Amino acid sequence: MSQTRLTVTRQITTDGVHLIALAGDIDHTTAEAFRQALTTDGSYPRHTVLDFRDVTFMDSTGVNVLIAANNTARARNGWLRLARTPTLVLDVLHIVGLDDYIGLYPTLNDALAA
Predict the structure, then answer these.
(1) Is the CB of residue 6 less than 8 Å from the CB of residue 33?
(2) Residues 47/69, Cβ–Cβ less than 8 Å
(3) Residue 113: pLDDT above 80?
(4) Which residues are within 8 A (CB) of 19 and not within 5 positions of it... i.e. 6 or more apart?
(5) Residue 1: its pLDDT value, please?
(6) CA 75 to CA 57: how far, in whole Å?
């Protein structure tokens, strides 16, 4: 069980892109906080960049939240992008094949400019 809390920092760019920086573990104890961090007024935004630089762990509950956010964004002709994703989390995304559906970028600027 994770003892690390998930901290979230949110901002919206002038283009209306939701930029969300995460720090800590994403697991069954923090999944609801993760889901809430990705939503605005109960729904997922159309365009979101997640800064994963300080995420230390992610399990299948985090993967499920990413899938829901990505599916909703795509249904609204939007997108979800991940930036600065640590190797530990990248490995999980590769194993489940999510890297084929969600854009992964080495920097925030790359994710915002794509």
Answers:
(1) yes
(2) no
(3) yes
(4) 10, 11, 12, 13, 48, 49, 51, 108, 112
(5) 45
(6) 28
Residue 61, classified by CB atoms within 10 Å of its CB into exposed (0-12), middle (13-18) or buried (19+), is middle
Q: How many helices (H) and strands (E) does the chain have?
A: 4, 5
Which residues are CB-contacts of 86 (< 8 A; sequence separation ≥ 6)? 52, 53, 55, 56
In a 13 Å sphere around the CA of 39, the CA atoms on its Cβ side amount to 12
User: How long a stretch of residues is the chain?
Assistant: 114
Look up residue 110 and give its DSSP letter. Answer: H
Each residue of 60-102: pLDDT tens digit? 999 999 999 999 999 999 999 999 999 999 999 999 999 999 9
Three-state SS sequence of 29-50 = CCHHHHHHHHCECCECCCEEEE
Tens digit of pLDDT for each residue in 32-53? 999 999 987 778 889 999 999 9
